[in-house]
Amino acid sequence: MDPVLIDLPMQLVSERLILRCPRPGDGPVANEAERESIQDLRPWMPWARADKSVAESEAWCRRAHARYLLREELHLFIFERDVLGREGSLIGGIGLHHIDWALRSFEIGYWRRRGFGGRGHATEAVHALVRFAFDQLAARRVEIRTDDANRLSWRLAERAGFTLEALLRGDSLSPTGEVRSTRVYARVRGIEEPLALPNAAAAAA
Hints:
By secondary structure, this protein is of the alpha+beta class. 30% of the residues lie in helices and 32% in strands. It has one domain (3-204): Aminopeptidase, CATH 3.40.630.30.
């Protein structure tokens, strides 16, 4: 099946959050969130640059929107939900990457805006995306890969019920050019997740 024909919602809603696909016009707010968080993101995220312009952020949002429609990568912004259920502050990003639609395998990546730590937002967003992947996309495997030195990130993976499968020692370079090791976590259908339900099997057909 051509992945473009897979029907996907443009946003997911959890108890406190709205996870929404980037769209044209999001560049200014995305740029602001990244700039505020640059010191936290720079050691781990190669795309985190202090000199990124609003135009560059806008171009990224438009490309991310297109890639979502093509089902190549599923980037989502994380917004707080206000009391009326509307989008509030942009507090980070999350997404499904390195997608293998034949295997139904996905990798989750995420980042959080400075000033919004300690509230469980990132964990809630990961839980929401995991449920979306397994329950609606019929995932067989969902991974989280994180720098071994990024304790906050891999602790989140563990809180979200992922199993540490491997430590890839000295496998890549960090954004600052230092040799890093990568932790590989996963949730797998039939192990951490129950065997496919009938509706999930139908979605995979």
